[in-house]
Amino acid sequence: MDISMLARRIGISDRAVQNKASEYMRLANTKLAGASMGTGEACKAAACLELSCMMLQHSIDSGALQKHSGASATVYRNARAMLQKLLGVKTQTHPRDLCLQFGCVRLERPVAAALATFKQRYVAQVAIAQRGTVALNKPVFVAAIFLAVAQKNKVKVDKRRLLEPLGVLPTEFAAAATAVASLMPELSTGSSAKRRRKPEGAEDEAADGCLAVAASARLEELGSSDEEEYDAWKTAMLERRAAEAKANDPPSGPLRQATLTYNAPAREKGSSCM
Q: Coiled coil where (predicted)?
């Protein structure tokens, strides 16, 4: 559907919004280089129009756009997130903004403190070579920590409403949430004993989750035309992880059973056996 026609149907008369959406459409077609978005191709115009409204801070009914696009809600959300990453449409993500959005200003300091602690723990437990591969200020980590702090404090947060403006895919958020849960067990909503006890292999799960987010960002930077370079980078990262894990493993030589020696008690003088 044409963007101008779609804009008229949902009541958007601002020419700046329509022009920005048309610009996003041309840029997306250029970056995709003729490739199709699959099922999300049908809602490309609607997604570009919503991204334009988001960028120019123009109010928009996302549900109405999704209905006019003719795609299901899941297909539309995934297509919009994909285009947002492809076009580089970034939104400001700060703990204060999220707390204001969901009406929990009192959580601003706990969220900021948890984010700082997460960064310190992650940097402390990964190799020096891997520290530069993950941008811990990415919106996905801020969202994951905000959701964990909100759940601990029994504040209801609509995860869909949280992730939609950030352009975060469900798989990317799941990887970040795994890393946060592994390194921040005190944010768990379980019993206090479970919160204090760090699960076995937590460092590996956290590193895997952060590596998954890094891989997604790396593939986004390289683009579809550099898949060989991405594969080489991913292989090198996995080999480095395997070498570090092997170096930290205990020796696997044969185990020897210890011999215990018991000394008989000394007999007292003058004692005799009956």
A: none
Q: Judge if 224 and 137 occupy the same domain.
A: yes
- CA distances (Å), 124 to each of 40, 70, 100, 127, 208, in order? 41, 48, 31, 8, 15
The boundaries of the domain holding residue 45 are: 3-87
Identify whether residues 208 and 143 lie together within a single domain. Answer: yes
Residue 149, pLDDT above cutoff 90? yes
d(CA 170, CA 78): 9
**91, 55 in Cβ contact below 8 A?**
no
Residue type, 221: E
At 121, the amino acid letter reads: R
Q: Do 219 and 171 lie in a common domain?
A: yes
Task: In whole angstroms, give the CA distance from residue 81 to residue 54.
Answer: 13
Residues 103 and 48 placed together within one structural domain of the fold: no
265, amino acid identity: P
> pLDDT tens digit string along 234-261?
666 666 666 666 665 555 555 566 565 5
**What length is written for the chain?**
274
Q: Using alpha carbons, select from 52, 49, 87 the residue that is nearest to residue 68.
A: 49
- Residue pair 114/75 in contact (Cβ under 8 Å)? The answer is no
| Residue appearing with tokens 């799960």 | 205
DSSP type of residue 56: T
Rounded distance, CA 213 to CA 174, Å? 9
